[in-house]
Amino acid sequence: MRFAVVRSSAPGCEPNCPEWISAEGTIETGTPTLFRRLLKTLGGRQLPIVVNSPGGNVDAALQLGRMIRKSKLDIAVGTTEFSGCSPQMKNCRDDDSKAAPYAGVAYDSGAMCNSACPLMFAGGVRRVVGEWAFLGVHQITTTYHREKLLYRTTYKVVNGKKKVLSTKIVSRRNAGSYKTYEMSKAVEKRLSGYLKEMGVDQDVLDVMKATPASDIRQIGPDDMLEMKLVTSLDSLDLMTGKTICQHGPVPTNCREIPTNGNARPAEVASVEVKPASAQPTGAALPSRSEQEMRFVLVRGTNPLCNPDCPEWIAAEGTIVAATPDRLRELLDTVGGRRLPIVVNSPGGDIQGALAAGRLIRERRLDVAVARTDFLDCDPGAAGCIVKDGPHDGLTVDAGAECDAACAVMVAGGARRLVGADAHFRVHSMGMEEKVRAYLEEMAIGPGLFAAMQSAQYAKHKELSQDELAKFGLTTGRQSVDALTGATICKSSSKPDNCRVLPSANAEAEAPAKL
After folding, report:
1. Residue 508 pLDDT greater than 80, yes or no
2. Three-state secondary structure along 34-87?
3. Is 259 inside a domain boundary?
4. How many whole angstroms separate alpha carbon 341 and alpha carbon 22?
5. Dihedral sign, CA of 200, 201, 202, 208?
6. From CA 372, how far away is CA 377, in angstroms rounded?
7. What is the reported pLDDT for 440?
8. Which domain holds residue 164?
9. Residue 356: inside a domain
10. Cα 118–Cα 235–Cα 461 angle in degrees, nearest 5
11. 436 and 297 in a common domain
């Protein structure tokens, strides 16, 4: 397997283009060493891996998977078409004068990840296999090599007994080899433990065992999603598309190369607010789209509401399998209060979204799509500790998004609001029957499911307020202000999320951060 850092050469992406690690070829015993060397040259940058491999050595694949997970890298099945200079060309190297790697474009058409490759693939944090890529598994072939050894032993006789002084191998001869085509109990146990470690279902192992070594079994998109082998049905454009660096938040694999040639990583888009007190400077935070969804208790800070202000739960980041449990943990800390959830998410794990949506409906919570601007300090920042109650913040529609699996989570709300300036996008996510049944359970019209199915995989379809109302996804045309606005606590029927603080110095529970 050959590794190379590649920068997109797609027209129109410069000066800020995505970069990735191209991994092509057979996985061999020395492949992990080559990969480790490459990682050292990146200086901690987290570049996604685009892999195209027929498989190879199982032990090496397991090592690669663990290295990928430890480095928190994403992975996609795809092939890289190099522009101009390519690694396999003699005397060809990347252009160091511009601090730029090889140039090329990533495609999923014709790409494969077979045999041992899916074990390496399982190590990715985000894992995608496009519509035109192929991922297949089969039984493991184990080759045993036999050797005939000739020893020379030196000894002496002491009191009539032999005492061995040394034993030395003087020759080795190949005595042939043989292969087995069924997984041993020891190998099965090792692979089972690895898949569990990576959060992948054991069904993958069952398919491997059921497929002869002479054959290859392709796993379909929906099955991969069900087995948690992929984290979404997106294509590799999610990680290498030329437009991903043109919208905030900017992924960490984007790098800007100004015309003067001094390259610098792209800055992550953020909202700058003045903190209540000076905060220590820390390392740059990962973009929201790369963070797992966190839940934070927030209190409105508009002077018009004091001392009786609304509170809400900010839900920001990617939905993962653990998201429902984290939400439940926070809800258990608020003593039965029905606080609305303000969500801003690019989507994520569909099963996590289904479970989170059902929990929201079970607790009869309202949901709105908006982002929360923290006015004291960002909960994810180093040294951000709020000791006197919830975080201070305000909600804003503009720039908020709810994509893919996020729509499923929002559908669980008792009241569901999407403001005019928020973005609500859907696409097909697999598990059609489960999603259809869930939406019916939540009393959402069939139009939303049809809209999801009409936008295949990564081709997002943005829905208007009229469409959301028509499908029954939204319960009104209000914005998030209907749940978190400064004046809602002055109404005659005061909402459950209003709370009076006796004085500016009143002590409250520390906010829950999950």
Report:
1. no
2. HHHHHHHHCCCCCCCEEEEECCECHHHHHHHHHHHHHCCCCEEECEEEECCCCC
3. no
4. 40
5. negative
6. 12
7. 92
8. 142-180
9. yes
10. 145
11. yes
* CATH number of the CATH domain containing 107: 3.90.226.10
Question: Of 165, 180, 195, at which residue does a domain stop?
Answer: 180
Q: Do 215 and 295 sit in the same domain of this protein?
A: no
How far is it between the farthest Cα atoms of the chain?
109
pLDDT tens-place string over residues 181-190:
678 888 899 9
- List pLDDT tens digits, range 135-150: 999 988 766 667 888 8
Q: State whether 292 and 205 are in the same domain.
A: no
pLDDT tens digits for 227-277?
A: 999 998 888 888 998 888 887 778 889 988 875 545 444 433 333 333 333
Alpha-carbon span 154 to 170, nearest angstrom: 12
Give the span between the Cα atoms of 205 and 193, in whole angstroms.
Answer: 11
Q: Is 257 within a domain? A: no
Give a yes or no: residue 507 inside a domain. Answer: no
- In this structure, the answer to whether residues 417 and 334 fall within a common structural domain is yes
Note whether 57 and 128 are same-domain residues. Answer: yes
**pLDDT, tens digit, 9 for 90 and up, residues 463-501:** 999 999 999 999 988 889 889 887 888 877 788 888 887
Tokens encoding 154: 């030196």
My answer on whether 428 and 465 are in the same domain is: yes
The per-residue pLDDT for 174 is 83
- How many angstroms separate the Cα of 416 from the Cα of each of 101, 301, 403, 444? 46, 23, 15, 11
Most confident of 41-55, 75-89, 255-269: 41-55
Q: Do the beta carbons of residue 140 and residue 208 sit within 8 Å?
A: yes
Tokens representing residue 88 in the block: 């396999």
Number of domains in the chain: 3
Q: Do 154 and 15 lie in a common domain? A: no
CA 31 to CA 44: how far, in whole Å? Answer: 20
Tell me which residue has tokens 């480790």. Answer: 36
Q: Which long-range contacts (CB under 8 A, 24 or more apart) does 243-248 make?
A: 243/13, 244/18, 245/13, 245/16, 245/17, 245/18, 246/13, 246/16, 248/399
Residue 460 CB contacts under 8 Å (≥ 6 apart), including other chains: 403, 404, 425, 426, 427
For Cα atoms 444, 449, 452, give the angle at the middle one, nearest 5 degrees. Answer: 135
- Quote the CA–CA distance of 398 and 509 in Å, as a whole number: 31
pLDDT in tens, 332-391: 888 888 999 999 998 888 889 999 999 999 999 999 999 888 877 777 776 777 656 788
Per the structure block, which two tokens stand in for 301?
Answer: 């800070």
Say if residue 174 is in the same domain as residue 190: no
Taking the CA atoms of residue 505, residue 506, residue 507 and residue 512 in that order, the dihedral angle to the nearest 10 degrees is -100
The per-residue pLDDT for 456 is: 62
pLDDT-derived band at 172 (thresholds 50, 70, 90) equals confident
AA letter at 318: T
Give me the residue label for tokens 């209190």.
299
